[in-house]
Each structure stands twice: as C-alpha cells, then as structure tokens.
Request: fold
Amino acid sequence: MKAVIIALLLLSGCASIPKGVSMTEAEAKECQAQGCSVWTEKELAGLMRYIFGEGVKAGARSKTEKLIGDNEMRINFDAALESVLHHEGGFVNHPKDPGGITNLGVTKRVWENWVGREVDEAEMRALTPNLIGPMYKQMYWDKIRGDDLPAGLDYVVFDAAVNSGPGRAAKWLQSAAGAVPDGIIGPATLRAVNGHIVADLVATYQATRLDFLKNLATWDTFGRGWDRRVSEVTSSARTFA
Reply:
C-alpha cells in the first residue's frame, strides 16, 4: 500500500507524501528531489478522491478515507455552521440591506430558490438551523470544498462564502494560494493551498476580504459589524485546527 501511495503521488505531480508513510532512503531521496511536502491524513483523503474520481462508492473508498471518515468532516461543518449562524443572527429586514428579508443569514430570495416556490414573511421567521443546514452544506460548504480544505481555513472560506458568495470566496482563496482565480476550487487549487502555512493563508485571505468589504457602498452602515466579524472569524479559525 505504501508503494502505491508514493507512486500515485509522484505520478500525479503532487510531489507530496502523507504523514505516517515511512520511506526507504532511496524513496526519500526521490521525494526530496521532487520537492515533497508533508500531507495530513485529511489532505491525503482528498487527493485520493481526485485520483480515483468523485464518484467512488462509499464501500469502495480507500482505507485512508475510511480512517478519516465522514464523521470528522461532518463535525467540522456543524461547528463552522454554528459559528456562521452566530454572526448572521436571526430575523432582520433592514431597509439598507439589499438582501431584504433575512433570517439566519438566508435571504428570502435564496430560500425561495432552495424550496422552489415563493415564501412569505411568516415562513421566513420560522426558519431554524436544522431546516437550513442542508442548504448551507450544498450551496456554500460543498462549493468551497470545505471537506477538502485544511481545518480552520475551511471555516474562514465558508464564512466568506456565506457573507460574499461562494464564487468570490473561492477566488480569494485561489489568489492567496497563488492559483488561477477562476472561482472553482479543484485539484490545482488544493495543491496550491497545501503548499502554504494555513495561518499565513488565513491572514492573507482575511486582509483581502476586509479590503473588499471596505469598498462596498454599505460599509458606513454595516462596516463595524463586518470588521468585527472578520476579526472574530480569524481568531476562531484557530479552534478548528
């Protein structure tokens, strides 16, 4: 199994080796020549998905992915969602907010798109975390590849996706990591991310995010809250690592 992992990593051009995989002196020299870095178990699980395809059935997952398990990824999402909802707050209908009627960070338009019909204010007021959780998972967490990002950074990008849109959140990550900012997080972006220290990426990412928010026309109205949110998300990201 070790030889297969090493061969796949080198052939894929990722030039990285997972923690816990021991190597012979010859293997270590070859990896060093390729500029290998160290992969965490979670990062390796993501890479194996890219190599074998996203459509691999659960029963056919690699041993590494089974070891990581969906439970850990689910815990990260649940914790990230709880933190995001803390910042989003409850029901609001601020006249200067272009989103209009909003509850738990979900605008009326977004919720109508999700349920496939028009909704009224009463239904918007009745939204609960359990009810909106699947929407946040599919429309934001999955789009920024939260399960495949390093712990801490996953929360930072997720929060930005909810606040400013998943496409923009993805481009900020790609720019911070030195990848092509096309707004779609794929294997190339994740390889670029894995070549950086997470804390450095978070700092660069949040600085870019704050600059964007400061240039919005609504900064004078919502700027103090956004500034506090970005700062708190940066601090909270450390608890996810």
The beta strands are 16-18, 37-39, 102-103, 106-107. The longest strand covers residues 16-18. The radius of gyration is 20 Å.
